[in-house]
Design a protein that fits this description.
This protein has 160 residues and is mainly α. It contains five helices and no strands. It has one domain (3-157). The two termini are 14 Å apart.
Length: 160
């Protein structure tokens, strides 16, 4: 196998793996962790544990997704349909990352400072806001992953 082909294959693999992990993780959270039914004590305990477990891994996968989809777009620069698909995927993943950084992680940082005995009076509003932003970033991740898959399939079917 020639080196450029190996580079393209490795890039495509990783440009699907990392967004797939993000889409799967956020979808799993969406379907398996709906905090709207939790009381304050349960929300604080569950949310803090989730943040401890995911607060480094998912952002790293998100940054990697953006970088690798960007590289895949550059490699597809002579294949306009694939290039445009990769750019759409890039925008979706980057927008999800911006939402995560500006909204979800800001609320996460606040919740990490709470104790079960010291929950602020606006906790339910913060919980609802976090959930709304989570759904938006999940939809963006799912769209970004689906479009990245489409771009890779386009490249494969065109022989690139």
């Amino acid at each position: 196998m020639r080196v450029p082909g190996l580079l393209t294959n490795a890039t495509h693999f990783l440009a699907l793996l990392l967004p797939g992990l993000i889409a799967g993780a956020t979808f799993g959270i969406w379907q398996g962790y709906d905090p709207r039914g939790l009381d304050a004590a349960a929300f604080v305990a569950v949310h803090q544990e989730a943040v401890r477990g995911l607060n480094l891994l998912l952002p790293a996968c998100g940054i990697g997704s953006v970088i690798l989809i960007g590289i895949a777009a550059w490699l597809a620069r002579k294949d306009r349909p694939a290039l445009l698909l990769f750019l759409v995927a890039l925008v979706c993943m980057a927008a999800g990352g911006v939402i995560t950084r500006l909204f979800n992680q800001t609320i996460n940082a606040e919740v990490m400072g709470w104790s079960v005995a010291n929950v602020p009076s606006n906790w339910a509003a913060l919980r609802a806001s976090w959930w709304d932003w989570h759904i938006i970033r999940t939809l963006l991740a799912l769209a970004g992953f689906a479009v990245a898959v489409t771009a890779v399939l386009r490249r494969r079917s065109s022989g690139a």
